[in-house]
């Protein structure tokens, strides 16, 4: 039996604290190190989660020869540089969502990972959720006919004190925090119909570049998707898939659902009762993804087929287009570069 993959966690904020218990439940993973901006914070976090090594500098952690995989849990604006440094140090990397702040940065990281022959993936845990995987199987089998209309929505009023969400420099806004979820969900079922494009966008973006809400229509062949996100008001976290002969209603929240109901003949009069599909959760939902990454690294893979880098790049291309349309609508004469429009020099 191969040894466990040895992981280091970069960042000690809310995402790291939320996911560490699931990392502890993942049998092929061992968390051996954590880094933070200060040694004090790293020591406190390491003590809280029983991590043996604590680093007050990210570069010092990357120099640890025992680390196989770096799990990056910092704000979006730091993802590109930190992931690039991990790759250049010869480490495999799992980077939280949004993977980068634009598609150009994602393409650069994909190229860099190939150059260094290391595993790289965005932490899109939704795709590894067993309920979502079963959902994809049932839709793919044609149970509701060909998928024609997908809906997905999520949103909540974010307090002003949550500076990361309201900071353009840190990659704040609804699109990078929430948009990647709804677009990824839609793409899973639209892709079979053809190339996915942004058909229309309604929303609001502030002059500092932080988008606060968006209602997006995607199109692919004969299929469409309607997606809603917001950080300034509540949006019901629901999702559905309607096909040519039936439909599916997904449990809330759709990105980590317990199950879903299949209506093979739709919802009209005389339709039979739905078929209920459920799966058993592991931890809070991250375990299947962490296990998949551990297996991939042990197998010598550089990407995971369930969520390849091309999928991440495709989602970010759509995010870029939604942002462009929002900017054109609200600031048609705006010519200055946005914080997302550049690729920082690699360290």
How is the topology of this model organized?
Layout: E1 5-10, H1 14-25, E2 29-35, H2 39-48, E3 53-55, H3 58-62, E4 69-72, H4 76-88, E5 92-95, H5 103-116, E6 120-122, H6 130-140, E7 147-155, H7 174-190, E8 197-205, E9 211-220, E10 223-230, E11 239-243, E12 247-250, E13 259-263, E14 275-278, H8 287-298, H9 309-330
Parallel strand pairs: 1-2, 1-4, 2-3, 4-5, 5-6, 7-10
Antiparallel strand pairs: 7-11, 8-9, 9-10, 11-12, 12-13, 13-14
Helix pairs in contact: 4-5, 5-9, 7-9
The CATH superfamily of the largest domain is Dihydrodipicolinate Reductase, domain 2
Number of strands: 14
Label the overall shape. Answer: globular
User: Which range best describes the helical content: under 10%, 10-25%, 25-40%, 40-55%, 55-70% or over 70%?
Assistant: 25-40%
At CATH level 2, the architecture of the largest domain is 2-Layer Sandwich
| Count of the separate structural domains | 2
Model description:
The chain is 33% helix and 23% strand. The protein is of the alpha/beta class and 347 residues long. It folds into 2 domains: 5-125 and 286-307, 3-Layer(aba) Sandwich (Rossmann fold); 130-284, 2-Layer Sandwich (Dihydrodipicolinate Reductase, domain 2), CATH 3.30.360. Helix 5 links the parallel strand 5 (92-95) and strand 6 (120-122). The radius of gyration is 20 Å and the shape is globular. 48% of the residues are buried. The model has no long low-confidence stretch (mean pLDDT 93).
